[in-house]
Design goal:
The chain is elongated, with a radius of gyration of 15 Å. The protein has about 80 residues and is mainly beta. It is about 0% helix and about 60% strand. The chain has no helices and 6 strands.
Length: about 80
């Protein structure tokens, strides 16, 4: 659940369930109402509401976890 006007953290995990090393991109489309977005590890590229991480050499049965911190704006009524 996202808390409006407060710091929030989501975690996205990608697991290589294959038998060979994986390389690719993780693309995440964020809501345009989110503010102060930061990630760990840092993203490779962002464009408006999409954040992209380049994934390289993800070994079989390995997991990459990305922490995403943000603030959700408070709607004005």
């Amino acid at each position: 659940m996202t808390r409006l006007g407060q710091n929030n953290r989501y975690t996205v995990s990608v697991k290589n369930i294959g038998t060979t090393t994986a390389t690719g991109k993780l693309k995440l489309q964020m809501d345009s109402r989110l503010l102060n977005i930061s990630t760990n590890p840092n993203y490779s590229f962002s464009n408006e509401d999409t954040i992209v991480w380049d994934i390289s050499n993800l070994l079989p049965n390995s997991t990459l976890s990305v922490a995403i911190d943000f603030t959700a704006e408070i709607p004005l009524y």
